[in-house]
């Protein structure tokens, strides 16, 4: 029998896809495994992207594998704005860097049933997805995988022509039973969506992976808001001058981030923990709940399905920007606690200076999330940027919450 790769049909494939998802663990088997529950919606992790597709691999009447993909336009580099006012050539000190955009595709949720591995099904799914990417004008395709997932790394690098590109860090902080105290010297202002969009476009549009449709990200129902931290004495919320003026004369330090509600999209669950570990974790919660003023770092119940919030669009400037980020993370923790989440997660460039302000547990985090990239076409790119896959990493990247 031949394996057929075709477009996912929500009316008849849902159960088959869920069955494969349930038995697939991502990564090696010798440690705790993380299972994802897509809550009956196999397309939930891509449906917020502007263009997306889900493919299944079928053997006879059985679904034996699947993959998802999406395409959007992002920043892949920057160039100097060539002309100043009155069409005068701007010199290099006054030239404002402008983003260079590219059409980028992303492959995620590739799964093959353990009973049918090493039969070329994974490869067939990736090839079919790449064909769809090309048909839709994508110039690059990328994937993210754990750096110890050798099956996935070999498949993409050895067999499909991807190269290792970036290694951002996924930082995970548990949500405690107690509220986190935020610095009394920092004021947190919630920006409305239009101000948030302007601030991001003015300040971060040249950051690589910045989505050109940032407005649809910020306007999405899953986006819980954009928050700005400033020194308490610099602004009152009613004195907020708007993003342009704010950036023209900013306080000595500031930071910004946005929060995305992944909890309403899918849940996670840790399996394989011993009874001793579970009891220990429960004890920390009981103590933290009884004595919240001690601010004990309790371990949430990760052993049943839990949701999380994702912090994205992290940025800031000034000597105390790290402190501002820490205050924002405390605020985000308390928001996640209110909404019943088990964790707050973010992903930042491995070179991001502001990561020092992001509280996280090393044992829950992933220091090197491996992103591999491939150039699908040669015809589109702006000459001044050339081949993005060959460019060195920058200090920051913009991780799109729609692709978490
Ligand atoms: C990764 C995965 C999709 C591969 O599916 P698959 O159908 O077995 O892959 P293929 O048979 O097409 O293998 C193609 C190539 O990938 C590499 N590969 C696949 N499985 C591998 C393994 N266990 N160890 C090392 N290399 C492996 C090999 O280069 C292989 O070619 P070869 O068989 O000629 O040596 C599958 O193992 C899986 O579902 N894993 C769990 C979920 C996961 O990790 N997904 C990836 C997240 S990005």
Description:
The chain is 23% helix and 30% strand. The protein has 404 residues and is α+β, with helices and mostly antiparallel strands. The chain folds into 2 domains: 3-167 and 368-403, 3-Layer(aba) Sandwich (Aminopeptidase); 172-266 and 288-357, Aminopeptidase. The strands form 3 sheets. The protein has a 7-stranded mixed sheet. A 6-stranded mixed sheet has the order 8-14-13-11-10-9. The longest helix is centred in the C-terminal third of the chain and has 18 residues, at 321-338. The structure holds coenzyme A. Coenzyme A binds next to strand 5, helix 2, strand 6 and helix 3. Residues 3-182 form the N-acetyltransferase domain. This is N-acetyltransferase hls1.
**Count of helical regions:** 8
- Span of the ends, CA to CA: 35 Å
Strand content bin: 25-35%
Following the backbone from N to C, one meets helices and strands in this order, namely EHEEEEHEHEEEHHEHEEHEHEE
Which architecture name of the largest domain does CATH use? 3-Layer(aba) Sandwich
Mean pLDDT score, rounded?
92
Q: What is the number of strand segments?
A: 15
**Ligand identities:** coenzyme A
């Amino acid at each position: 029998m031949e394996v057929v790769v075709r477009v996912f049909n929500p009316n008849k494939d849902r159960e088959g896809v869920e069955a494969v998802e349930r038995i697939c663990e991502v990564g090696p088997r010798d440690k705790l495994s993380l299972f994802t529950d897509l809550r009956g919606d196999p397309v939930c992790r891509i449906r917020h992207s502007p263009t997306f597709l889900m493919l299944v691999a079928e053997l006879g009447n059985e679904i034996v594998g699947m993959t998802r993909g999406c395409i959007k336009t992002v920043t892949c580099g920057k160039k100097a704005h060539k002309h100043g006012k009155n069409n005068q050539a701007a010199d290099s000190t006054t030239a404002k860097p402008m983003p260079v955009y590219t059409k980028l595709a992303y492959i995620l949720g590739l799964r093959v049933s353990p009973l049918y591995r090493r039969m070329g099904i994974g490869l067939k799914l990736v090839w079919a997805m790449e064909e769809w990417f090309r048909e839709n004008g994508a110039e690059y395709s990328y994937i993210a995988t754990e750096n110890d997932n050798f099956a996935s790394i070999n498949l993409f690098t050895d067999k499909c022509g991807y190269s290792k590109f970036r290694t951002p860090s996924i930082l995970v902080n548990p949500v405690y039973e107690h509220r986190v105290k935020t610095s009394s010297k920092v004021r947190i202002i919630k920006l409305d969506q239009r101000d948030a969009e302007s601030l991001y476009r003015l300040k971060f549009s040249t950051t690589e992976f910045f989505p050109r449709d940032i407005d649809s990200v910020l306007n999405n129902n899953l986006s819980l808001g954009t928050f700005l931290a400033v020194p308490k004495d610099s602004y009152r919320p009613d004195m907020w001058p708007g993003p342009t003026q704010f950036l023209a004369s900013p306080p000595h330090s500031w930071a910004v981030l946005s929060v995305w509600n992944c909890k309403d999209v899918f849940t996670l669950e840790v399996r394989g923990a011993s009874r001793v570990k579970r009891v220990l974790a429960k004890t920390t919660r009981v103590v933290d709940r009884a004595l919240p003023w001690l601010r004990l770092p309790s371990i949430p119940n990760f052993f049943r399905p839990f949701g999380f919030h994702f912090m994205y669009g992290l940025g800031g400037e000034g000597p105390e920007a790290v402190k501002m980020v820490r205050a924002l993370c405390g605020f985000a923790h308390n928001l996640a606690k209110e909404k019943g989440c088990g964790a707050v997660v973010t992903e930042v460039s491995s070179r991001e200076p502001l990561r020092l302000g992001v509280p996280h547990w090393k044992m829950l985090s992933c220091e090197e999330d491996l992103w591999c990239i491939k150039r699908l076409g040669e015809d589109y790119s702006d000459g001044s940027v050339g081949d993005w896959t060959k460019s060195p990493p920058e200090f920051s990247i913009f991780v799109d919450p729609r692709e978490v």
